[in-house]
């Protein structure tokens, strides 16, 4: 007898985790592997944040807290939203979870009924569709390809909305493309949403502070205050503060939604790590100057990777506005054969052959809902990136 539920059969494991795991296994087996799959800064958590966590331990702040966060952290989150986004929230409108993923999952579980639709622009973060499926909803994937800068048009959004649409998931700057929407581009989308009052907005702002050049971050409820009462503004400390393993995500929105999310969390994980919560307070309230310094490093790495990948015949790599990913198209390589004899008939075949023949681990585009492409995370050292891109250049040049 199969003990697994029918619901579980609707989803698949995370492809990004699978790539990272395979790369680690090859490394343990003695292979020279460069992993460009993980979405994780290689910077250490800043010292003042680490010290706040240590201080919490030394002061005995190690017991259970309210299920969705301590009051002090919720107050810091409210101050952050006011300071950075011009959004007014009170602590009762805030939920803190064990990472940004739990926040999104709780919201979907609290709101979706069977058959409800969730609009997801592609390329998308790999977990969005599967979380919708687990919650009983139906993902409605809308392509936003390289020809539009990986940005969804107002016309495409309008066409995707039906009476069954419950949520629109929005991510800028984007994982996997790094594409960021300008104020005017986002206003075009919010104008559409204002015409459809039954559609709620789930905005994933995790890469808010990783914005480069002249790009200015903005979020839907900031651009269109009329959406405030049906927007869940989600964020976290993982990326900008180099706190991936601390597992703190948060969101603010209508109290009725936050209450539903709290109920789910109280019966699943209960509170996020107490020590991490106190460290997150320091992250949000403490010095922010290191973010700009880290971003200078990310821009240098971005430019290195974009230049080296665009030098490859058959590869097109747009310059992203933020995050720490590039999403090059390999349309010009489909149908060719690698030096090791693999026919490149898909981006998954490309990524598999690249790893096996050169030891470079990337994530294939189909995992993000838009092919043929692959994702590179440039959140690693300049030397590793240069070597990896050199291997990718040789790999592609050797194709027949």
Automatic annotation (TrEMBL):
InterPro entries attached to this UniProt entry: Aminotransferase_I/II_large, AspAT/PAT-like, NHTrfase_class1_PyrdxlP-BS, PyrdxlP-dep_Trfase, PyrdxlP-dep_Trfase_major, PyrdxlP-dep_Trfase_small
Top-tier EC class = transferase
Record domain Aminotransferase class I/classII large: where: 32-392
Which reactions fall under this protein's catalytic activity? L-aspartate + 2-oxoglutarate = oxaloacetate + L-glutamate
Q: Which cofactor does it need?
A: pyridoxal 5'-phosphate
Question: Partners and quaternary state?
Answer: Homodimer.
Protein name according to UniProt:
Aminotransferase
């Amino acid at each position: 007898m199969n003990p697994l539920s029918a619901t579980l059969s609707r989803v698949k494991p995370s492809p990004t985790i699978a790539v990272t795991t395979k790369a680690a296994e090859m490394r343990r087996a003695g292979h020279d592997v460069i992993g460009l799959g993980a979405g994780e800064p290689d910077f250490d958590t800043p010292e003042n944040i680490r010290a706040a966590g240590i201080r919490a331990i030394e002061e005995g702040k190690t017991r259970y807290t309210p299920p969705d966060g301590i009051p002090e952290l919720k107050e810091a989150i409210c101050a952050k939203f006011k300071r950075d986004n011009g959004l007014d929230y009170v602590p009762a409108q805030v939920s803190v979870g064990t990472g940004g993923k739990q926040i999104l999952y709780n919201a979907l579980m609290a709101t979706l009924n069977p058959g409800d639709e969730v609009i997801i622009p592609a390329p998308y973060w790999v977990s969005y569709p599967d979380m919708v499926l687990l919650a009983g909803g139906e993902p409605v994937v809308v392509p936003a390809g390289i020809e539009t800068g990986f940005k969804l048009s107002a016309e495409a959004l309008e066409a995707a909305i039906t009476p069954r649409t419950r949520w629109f998931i929005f991510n800028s700057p984007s994982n996997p493309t790094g594409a960021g929407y300008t104020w005017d581009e986002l206003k075009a989308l919010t104008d559409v949403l204002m015409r459809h009052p039954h559609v709620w907005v789930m905005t994933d702002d995790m890469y808010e502070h990783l914005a480069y050049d002249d790009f200015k971050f903005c979020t839907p409820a900031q651009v269109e205050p009329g959406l405030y009462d049906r927007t869940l503004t989600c964020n976290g400390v993982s990326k900008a503060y180099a706190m991936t393993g601390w597992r703190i995500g948060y969101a603010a929105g209508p109290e009725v939604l936050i209450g539903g999310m709290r109920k789910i969390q109280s019966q699943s994980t209960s509170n996020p790590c107490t020590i991490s919560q106190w460290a997150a307070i320091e992250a949000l309230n403490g010095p922010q100057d290191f973010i700009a310094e880290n971003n200078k490093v990310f821009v240098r790495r971005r430019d290195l990777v974009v230049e080296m990948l665009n030098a490859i015949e058959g590869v097109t790599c747009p310059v992203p506005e933020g995050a720490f990913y590039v999403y090059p198209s390999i349309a010009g390589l489909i149908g060719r054969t690698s030096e090791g004899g693999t026919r490149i008939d898909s981006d998954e075949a490309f990524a598999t052959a690249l790893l096996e023949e050169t030891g470079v681990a990337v994530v294939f585009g189909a995992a993000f809902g838009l092919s043929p492409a692959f994702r590179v995370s440039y959140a690693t050292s300049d030397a590793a990136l240069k070597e990896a891109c050199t291997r990718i250049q040789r790999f592609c040049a050797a194709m027949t």
